Amino acid sequence: MMNTKCLPRRAVLAVGTAGIAGLATPWVIGSARAGAAIRIGHLTDVSGPYSANSGAVSIACARQAIEDFNPAAKGIAVEYLVGDHQNNTDIALNIVREWFDRGDVDAVLEVNNSAIALALNNLCTQKDKVHLNSGAVTADLTGKSCSPNMVHWTYDSWMLTHPSSTALTNAGFKTWFYVAPDYAFGVSLTRDSTAAVEAAGGKVLGIARHPFPGVTDFSSFLLTAKASGAQVVAFANGGADIVNCMKQAREFGLPQSGIKMVALAAQTTDLHGMGLEVGQGLMMCLPFYWDLNERTRAFTKRVLPKTPTAYPSVTHAGAYSCLLHYLKAVEAVGGPDKAKASGRVTVDVMKQLPTDDDVLGKGLVRLDGRKIHTTYLFDAKKPEDSKKPWDYQYVIETIPAEQSFRPLAEGGCPFVKV
Question: Residues 122-148: what's their mean pLDDT?
Answer without folding.
Answer: 97
